[in-house]
Amino acid sequence: MIQIKDNIFWTGIKDWGIRAFHGHELSTHRGTTYNSYLIKDEKTVLVDTVWDPYKEEFVERLEAEVGLKNIDMIVINHNEPDHGGSLGYLMSKIPETPIYCTKNGAEIIRKHFHKDWKFNVVKTGDTVKTGKYELVFVEMQMLHWPDSLLTYVKGANLVLSNDAFGQHFSPASLFNDEIDSCELYQEAMKYYANILTPYSALVKKKIEQIKALNLPIDMIAPSHGVIWRNNPLQILEKYYEWSQDYNEGSVVIIYDTMYDSTREMGKAIGEGLEKSGVKYKMFDCAITDRSDLLTEIFKAKGVIVGSCTVNNTVMRAIASLLDEIKALRFKNKVGAAFGSYGWSGEAPRIISQKLQEAGLSVPQEPVAFKYRPTPEEIQKCIQFGETFAESLK
Ligand code: FEO
């Protein structure tokens, strides 16, 4: 256990080896951590547990360091199995211990473990005195599950925010002032882009609510990655910025191709953007890490997607990407579509339609050429890029 505040300890697990999360939905190039915290006050409080595969290590450590029978209460901020997963094993040893969670949390815990433990349902503003500290609860519904809760430790000026402000990152140090902040921010943004983007309107409101509470905050300790100790409010401000239709003004060109014609068209579109002074990046969708790609889309103002036509539709990597763009509910982005085809040529029109269904504005008709683009057609792609650049203004 690592002391993070007077008599408050990190008792989590560093998962150095994990490379995919949520099944295989989310890449975790830098591993992750499951942060659990222990408050040793007059009452001993455990806040969150760790993912199920680590339950024995976690519970054995608690037994050795504090004694399970000495735990007076458990707070479950969120029962996704990466945080609540060890609860079943822990409760098999101390079944009478009260669990503090939201109403939705109690239901979700019951549905996961099929047990009716002693639930103490809390809502925003409820408090529990633990001795010199006091826990203050703030519901964080849909950030990012219906049960999400934040626990503020009054007296320690400590925010235990669970998933919010976290990163899938297993760092050398637990504290933001002792690690590479470039790595930290890459992971914090990727986490926001892939997990929280659909809930941005709620994030904005919640941050305004937290700010209005005027709580003194020395430290924000999420349930993944590092603890924000130096200037902890920086991540609150970043979330506020990211929650408001964030983009960095640049463009991404994302394509899939069979025989390079669609790629050549994409390169020419990029040339048109460049001639107009617009910065862009280009990605082969089929071989690019999907979570990184969605982070690039999060940062971009313009999203230009290309596919050749196969069996009257788009290539499979592009099909799933378009679904994910829609699911993440990006706002304030401009889209366009392109692609080469052999005979039927539906793909660019399908892309254009799906981008519009996903809420992007698509001011241009898609550009499509048969088989290999001629030099004149390449020129038209360059012009397409220039027109797209105009539409960003
Ligand atoms: Fe880290 Fe929503 O669990």
Protein model, in words:
The chain is an alpha/beta fold and 393 residues long. The protein has two domains: 2-242, Ribonuclease Z/Hydroxyacylglutathione hydrolase-like (Metallo-beta-lactamase, Chain A, 4-Layer Sandwich); 252-388, Flavodoxin domain (Rossmann fold, 3-Layer(aba) Sandwich), CATH 3.40.50.360. Helices cover 35% and strands 23% of the residues. It is built from twelve helices and 21 strands. The strands form five sheets. The protein has a seven-stranded mixed β-sheet with strand order 1-2-7-8-9-10-11. Strands 12-13-14-15-16 form a five-stranded mixed β-sheet, with no helix packed on it. A five-stranded parallel β-sheet has the order 18-17-19-20-21, with helices on both faces. α4 (103-113) links the parallel β10 (99-101) and β11. α5 (181-196) packs across α9 (290-299), α6 (200-213) packs antiparallel against α7 (233-242) and α10 (316-328) runs parallel beside α11. It starts with a strand and ends with a helix. Bound molecules: MU-OXO-diiron.
Short description:
The protein has helices at 55-65, 81-84, 87-93, 103-113, 181-196, 200-213, 233-242, 261-275, 290-299, 316-328, 347-357, 375-391, and strands at residues 2-5, 8-10, 13-15, 20-21, 26-27, 32-34, 37-40, 44-47, 73-75, 99-101, 119-121, 127-129, 134-139, 149-154, 158-162, 219-222, 250-256, 280-284, 300-307, 334-341, 367-370. The protein has 393 residues and is of the alpha/beta class.
For the structure shown, list the relevant keywords.
2 domains, 7-stranded mixed sheet, 21 strands, Metallo-beta-lactamase, Chain A, alpha/beta, 393 residues, binds MU-OXO-diiron, Rossmann fold, 5-stranded mixed sheet
